[in-house]
Design a protein that fits this description.
118 residues, alpha+beta, hypothetical protein PF0899 fold, three-stranded mixed sheet, three-stranded antiparallel sheet, 6 strands
Length: 118
């Protein structure tokens, strides 16, 4: 189950940033491409299990799946590739190159705002 290893990596990164920021994390936004995709439920459950009884307990993971993109040979349009309609969205050409898939990334970590300093 590769989601467990991914959850551990996410935990380690958020924990390190938490230490640097000296703040409590509340949410992390993660993105991944079509072929670097994860199962949202399995990843969330694995992360919850790893973070139980730590400062990261109750951190919400928000996972965004980015579509595969392609570039048309005829008109150079970059478009979201759809397996059910594998044509350029501008000119309808079947001649295109698939672009590299988006990697799995932690896009953002949201921390709790300290109300006592306001």
């Amino acid at each position: 189950m590769h989601e467990a290893m991914i959850a551990q990596s996410i935990f380690d990164i958020i924990a390190a940033e938490t230490k640097k920021q000296n703040a409590k994390p509340i949410k992390a936004k993660i993105s991944c491409g079509t072929f670097n995709a994860v199962n949202d439920d399995v990843l969330s459950i694995a992360f919850e299990s790893i973070s139980r009884e730590t400062v990261l307990q109750n951190v919400k993971l928000e996972i965004e799946h980015k579509p595969m993109q392609a570039k048309c040979h005829k008109c150079s349009q970059v478009f979201d590739f759809e397996i059910v309609r594998p044509l350029c969205s501008r000119c309808g050409s079947e001649q295109y190159d698939l672009l590299p898939d988006e990697p799995l990334l932690i896009e953002e970590i949201e921390f709790e705002v300290d109300q006592s300093n306001e």
